[in-house]
Write a structure and sequence with these properties.
The chain is mainly alpha-helical and about 375 residues long. It is built from 18 helices and 4 strands.
């Protein structure tokens, strides 16, 4: 691989012209000399950081094989809280954001490469291979499905004519998502639809517009909150409805939308610096943090079991949640310090190198993070 100098802003950028971003004839766009890039989208970093942190709370009990029920139908209270507010709520967000990132990469590839789909192919294949390895540590992880869905769905969709690309992808994604909800009841079957929907949004400037759409975000949050409360009340008072995976997955999608709207609104308040400093580093190094959290949980398993994590007890579950919070806090601090010296996380750097088949700049010229 050759070394190349890449502008820092190119790490996560949007084309200002959404039509150009999906141009079927990318060579024509490159000839125009356009390299219209924008700075990182902080809201995406923050939401991604919150999502990858919350997913750890769901994955850790599975990795450690923690008992969740004191008796049939009677979950531990802490586990029940996670089922209500976390389970199936942040996984859709994480999947959707990966779809957006794939679109951003294709946009950049169409401006910089004579073979943009080869760039996207390498990125997707590398993710699938990493996911295949990660499967040995955490069966049922998400990276392998993300890579495979991208290879099977996004590469063919990248040939859709530019004027119709975002709309056609949105329709395809919606059909896949609705079909998964009705036929299988959620889980990993939601990934194809979420990835394609995220990809369709990434082909537009919708995310940047959403950052400033305070009124729209407020309405979306209100609607999502009302639907979520009604859904939670119904599921808490109806055993059959609670056991219906389709209902649970649908409610999870509504709450995921509500969470995203809430974060976008909070980023317009005085707590924005706190959210940015805590979660943006986690989001910028989401791949590294997602994989490394699995390794840490496995290595710490003897310690977790020594303090009582395993049996279905309230104290054991609280200790598990506390342990996850400590891991998330450490990852946030380490990520922030790492990004003061380096442009990318370790896995992000390797992934980028394989994607572009070049050795990108890694060490910051200015050691102080912006």
């Amino acid at each position: 691989m050759q070394k190349t100098s890449t502008p820092e802003d190119d790490r996560s950028s949007y084309a200002t012209d959404s039509n150009a971003s999906v141009a079927s004839n990318s060579s024509e766009y490159r000839k125009s000399g356009a390299r219209s890039v924008r700075p990182r989208i902080i809201s995406l970093d923050v939401i991604r950081g919150i999502a990858v942190s919350s997913i750890l709370l769901v994955n850790a009990p599975s990795i450690l094989e923690v008992d969740a029920y004191t008796a049939p139908g009677h979950p531990v209270f802490v586990r029940h809280l996670l089922d209500i507010f976390v389970q199936e709520r942040f996984f859709p967000i994480f999947s959707f954001l990966f779809g957006i990132s794939f679109a951003i990469v294709l946009v950049g590839a169409m401006e910089r490469s004579t073979r943009p789909r080869l760039v996207l192919f390498r990125r997707l294949l590398a993710l699938a291979l990493l996911g295949a390895v990660h499967q040995f540590l955490q069966p049922g992880e998400a990276l392998l499905p993300y890579g495979l869905c991208g290879l099977v769905l996004l590469l063919p969709l990248s040939w859709v004519p530019r004027r119709m690309a975002s709309w056609i992808c949105a329709v395809v994604g919606a059909v896949l998502l609705l079909g998964a909800l009705l036929l299988s009841g959620g889980g990993l079957t939601l990934v194809p639809g979420l990835i394609v929907l995220g990809y369709s949004v990434g082909l537009t400037d919708l995310i940047r517009r959403a950052e400033t759409a305070t009124k729209t975000n407020s309405i979306v949050l209100l609607v999502a909150a009302v639907v979520s409360v009604i859904g939670l009340v119904l599921s808490e008072n109806n055993v059959d409805m609670r056991a219906d995976t389709r209902f649970s997955a649908g409610l999870g999608l509504v709450m995921a939308i509500g969470y995203c709207s809430l974060v976008l609104l909070l980023l317009k308040t005085p707590i924005r610096p706190v959210l940015r400093s805590v979660f943006a580093p986690l989001g910028r190094m989401a791949l590294t943090n997602y994989v490394s959290a699995t390794v840490v949980i496995i290595l710490a398993a003897p310690l977790f079991r020594a303090v009582g994590v395993g049996p279905a007890t309230e104290s054991g579950w609280w200790l598990l949640v506390l342990g996850c919070v400590v891991i998330i806090a450490l990852q946030s601090v380490i990520s922030a310090f790492w990004l003061r010296a380096f442009l990318y996380g370790p896995l992000e750097y390797l992934w980028r190198a394989v994607t572009w088949w070049k050795k990108p700049a890694f060490v910051r010229r200015d050691p102080i993070a912006k």
